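Input sequence (292 aa), recorded before submission:
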Amino acid sequence: MASTRDIRRRIKSVKNTAQITKAMQMVAAAKMRKAQQAALVGRPYAKLLNVMMAEAATGTVGFDHPLMQSRPVNKRAVVVVGSDRGLCGGLNGNLFREVAKLDKNITVFVTAGKKASLFIARTKRNLAAEFSYKDTPEFAEARAISKFVQQLFLKGEVDAVDILYPRFINTLTQQPSLVPFLPMGKLSAVTAGLNAPKEDLMSHDTDEIFEFEPDEETVLGQLLPHSLNFQMHQILLETKASEQSARMVAMKNATDNAKQIIKDLTLEYNKLRQANITKELLEITTAQMAIS
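Predicted structure, C-alpha cell format:
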C-alpha cells in the first residue's frame, strides 16, 4: 500500500499536469475563436464569387475549360489536410482511418500538415508532395497546394483530385469529409467554409448588373483557377478551426480527469492518514493499559 508521502507526491504531480492542460485549453479556445472568425470572414467573398461566375456562365455558349474536363479515373490524387501537432483528441485518427480505406494502388497523396505527412510515409503510400501551413493559413500557402494539384490534373498525371479534411460541424464535432476538387463540376460549387448554407451562397439580388471586360469567357478562364485556390484556402481555415476545437475539448477532458484523480487521491490520503492516527491511538491506549 502506498504511503502518505507517495500519495502527496502523486497529488502534486497531477495538479501540475492539470495546470498545464488548463493553460493549453485556454490557448486553444482563443485560437479556436480566431480560426472560426477567419473562416467566416470569407463567406461574403465566396458568395460574390459564386454570383460573378454564375452570371458570366449565363453569357457563354458551350464554355469549356481544361479544369472542367472529365475523363475515366485511372489515377486519383487525394489532398490530406491534417494538423501539425497532436493533443487534439481523435481528430487525426479519424482522418487517417478514412485514408486507410482508399486504394493505395491508384491513389497518390498530397499532404498538408506534419501529422498527415508522417502517416502517409509510415504506411508507405505514394506521397507526391507535402506542404505546411501556419496557425492562421495564408492564401499563398493554399494557392501553392492548389496549383500543384491543378498541374497534376492538367498534365494528365491524375484523372481526378479529392480533398480529405476534418469538416467543422461544431465545437464538439469534426467530421472527416472527402470532397471533389477536380475536375470542376458546376461553376457555382465554391465553398464558403464552416458549412455555409448553399442557398445563402447562391442567392443574390436580381437587380445586380455585371459587365465583363473583355468578355465572359476570358473572365471565367481567370476565375476558375482562382476559385479553386480560394476553396483550398477555406478548407485550410476550416481545418484549423476543427483542430483548435478538438484540442480545446481534449484539454478540457484532461483537466476534468485530473481534477477527479486529485479528488480520489485526496480521499485515499485522508483515509490512510485517519487509519494511521487510529493505529497510533490504539498503540498508546494499549501501552497505558499495560502499564496500569
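Checked by second reader. The helical segments are 4-41, 43-58, 91-100, 114-122, 139-154, 198-202, 216-291.
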